[in-house]
Design a protein that fits this description.
The complex is a heterodimer of chains A (321) and B (329). Chain A contains 9 helices and 9 strands. With 321 residues, chain A is α+β, with helices and mostly antiparallel strands. Among the domains of chain A are: 39 residues; 103 residues, Alpha-Beta Plaits. Classes of the chains: A alpha+beta (321), B alpha/beta (329).
């Protein structure tokens, strides 16, 4: 501890020697230093070590303390995330609302930990904080700017809410459910169960499509393509019935079912737009409606287009997923 | 079944009939949960219309509406009109024909509907637009249930017994545990469980309610104000001439999606034949027989021959579960 204090002071002493510190600052600082050192250092060590820079009070004990607090914050964050996730899956009807609080809880825990480290462990004064942020700023400028941009991006995502945990989003070419908005990155789980990690900074500047915007229900579009000679009205009626009888559908005044028909030169597209009551049912719903509609189409003599005619083209919902 | 009051509902139905004879026709829909007493209400209506009307159950109309066309009288009571649809592709033909007939007819139709089916059909085909007059049978209060049940007894004929909770049951926090397995080793995780029974008992004592009041409050709460369910619970509690407050909270339900959907189909009809359930579930790849046996095992439905019915005592839990799962809107 003694040598640490001496070394630290010596190092800062050298640093300050090379900088142009104003004389009034320098005198204040040196008086602080001498009083700190004299109170902390044992009597056999010379107490009047010459220095004119602030003592940050950083010794091995403080560092261990800070690391312990960070470790505790990490454990607390993991436990909070685990409990909130478990609770959200149990209280099924409020799943998304509860999941929305997870990133906020994490930021609060880590924010409190950092505040505690700065305030209670290192006991930084205003001057010391300025000095710390000066050094931190330089470090960030040179090496950590991307990391800081990611953390700031995370804070902006939580405050601005372009998407939330539980939403189905498309970021760049990746589509999936937002499972976590972390300190540094957002994690999506794609329909084929791949975990995609996108940095918060990138997620913020990318073009983003949010399919449900915080709501539990979500619109699903089902496209079926039929031969031009087939009875389109009958096809629309069948697709409507297949949609409204699905076990996944949710219908209300604000969430109606819409059936649309579009004519193409060699075929027709019958489109159903309806809501599933849980966004996780998007693909089972699509499969259920498509399968039962086609069974009824076949029974009604409605035929698919001839092979080779359909050119769905890029960006189509049917082609994309 | 004991007869609920229905004064308000009967008043409205009388008005609809009087208006009809005065030349103003407004078809009427009576919407209720299962066991609310809609059959008893229609018995009253049948008495009101007498020779001028006919009473038909929609169960017989699903395949053919001929019986409806041939029904005598100017007023037609169609009971369980929700049986005119099936939740499957091609399952709306009968109800479409029925609603078209309603529009074309100059007769007055008084219909009863299951509340779950009514809400579903209203969202899907705009059912309420076909019925300018609607009656929703409301839940009964503890006082109304008390009046209905005690109407068959003399004053002070029955003795309501207070159930004393023992030391263990009076504790608000009890120790519960959950079995977990980690790396092949099984262990118990203890956690505190709150006893709602104890809290309720303490609150009742604080409010200084009589044993009779406590019993009927609890009966109304567990039955969700449903007279049919309340009557069944009453029979369980009655040990003539004593009445014991042994009413237990309805069970909590944990079902998978397909099981919940099958339960929703049964609830939306009140009771269904196995054939009907198969026609709805088989296209989804769900075995109607297996799933109804499973639901019976869980105490949610009863199977009597080929008919599967919602179990009255589980009705409150079933509604709560299906609303949470958003299968009942």
């Amino acid at each position: 501890m003694v040598s640490m204090a001496e070394n630290t002071t010596g190092t800062f002493s050298n640093l300050s020697g090379s900088s142009n510190v104003p004389s009034n600052v320098s005198s204040n600082v040196s008086s602080n230093v001498s009083s700190n050192v004299s109170s902390n250092v044992p009597s056999n060590v010379p107490s009047n070590v010459p220095s004119n820079i602030p003592d940050l009070g950083i010794d091995s004990y403080a560092i261990i303390n800070a690391l312990l607090i960070l470790a505790l914050a990490y454990v607390a964050a993991r436990i909070t995330v685990f409990l909130l996730t478990a609770l959200s899956e149990r209280v099924y009807e409020h799943r998304i609302t509860i999941k929305m609080t997870i990133p906020i809880a994490k930021f609060v825990i880590y924010g409190f930990a950092l505040y505690h480290i700065a305030g209670s462990v290192f006991q930084l004064s205003a001057v010391q904080l300025v000095a710390f942020w000066g050094i931190a700023g330089a470090a960030i400028g040179f090496g950590l700017k991307d990391r800081v941009a990611e953390v700031v991006g995370g804070i902006v995502i939580i405050l601005d809410k372009p998407y939330q945990v539980g939403d189905m989003v498309e970021i760049e070419d990746y589509y999936g459910e937002v499972r976590d908005i972390g300190i540094r990155a957002t994690r999506l789980v794609t329909p084929d169960d791949s975990l995609v990690t996108v940095s918060n900074q990138k997620a913020l500047i990318s073009i983003l499509a949010d399919a449900n915007a915080g709501s539990r229900e979500m619109m699903v579009v089902v496209d079926l393509f039929i031969d031009s000679a087939s009875d389109a009205s009958r096809a629309m009626a069948i697709l409507r019935e297949a949609t409204v009888t699905s076990r996944y559908v949710y219908i209300s005044e604000k969430r109606p079912v819409t059936i649309l028909l579009k004519d193409y030169p060699f075929y027709r597209r019958v489109r159903s737009k309806a809501y599933v009551y849980d966004l996780r049912d998007e693909f089972p719903f699509e499969t259920d409606v498509t399968r039962r509609a086609w069974e009824a189409f076949e029974a009604a003599g409605i035929r698919p287009p001839e092979a080779g005619i359909i050119d769905i083209g890029p960006g189509s919902v049917a082609a994309g997923r | 079944m004991m007869k609920p009051g229905f004064e308000e509902e009967i008043g409205l139905i009388k008005k609809v009939i009087v208006d009809f004879w005065d030349g103003h026709r407004s078809n009427l829909a009576v919407v209720s949960d299962p066991f609310r007493g809609e059959t008893e209400l229609m018995d009253e209506v049948e008495g009101m219309i007498g020779e001028e009307g006919a009473r038909i159950n929609a169960r017989s109309l699903f395949r053919d509406l001929k019986a409806l066309n041939e029904a005598p009288g100017r007023i037609v009571v169609v009971e369980e009109a929700h049986r005119l649809y099936q939740r499957k592709v091609g399952g709306f033909e009968a109800i479409d024909r029925f609603l078209n007939m309603l529009l074309a007819s100059d007769r007055l139709f008084i219909t009863t509907w299951n509340s779950v089916s009514w809400k579903y059909l209203d969202e899907v085909i705009g059912l309420s637009r076909h019925f300018p007059q609607k009656i929703r049978i409301s839940r009964m209060s503890a006082g109304e249930i008390r009046k209905m049940i005690l109407s068959g007894y003399e004053e002070k004929e029955l003795t309501f017994l207070e159930v004393e909770l023992d030391e263990e049951e009076l504790k608000i926090f009890n120790r519960a545990s959950r079995q977990k397995t980690l790396a092949g080793h099984s262990f118990e995780i203890p956690y505190p469980a709150i006893s709602s029974r104890s809290i309720r008992s303490r609150m009742d004592r604080t409010e200084k309610k009589s044993a009779e009041e406590i019993f009927f409050d609890r009966l109304a709460s567990i039955s969700d104000g449903n007279p049919g369910v309340a009557e069944l619970l009453w029979k369980e509690a009655l040990d003539y001439p004593e009445v014991r407050n042994v009413l237990k909270d309805p069970p909590s339900i944990d079902l998978h999606r397909d099981e919940s959907f099958a339960l929703c189909i049964v609830l939306s009809m009140g009771s269904v034949e196995m054939e009907y359930l198969s026609e709805v579930l088989e296209p989804l790849g769900i075995s109607a027989l297996n799933i109804s046996n499973l639901l019976e095992e869980m105490g949610l439905v009863t199977i009597d021959g080929e008919v599967i019915s919602v179990r009255a005592l589980a009705l409150k839990s079933i509604f709560e579960h299906l609303r949470r799962a958003r299968l009942v809107w």
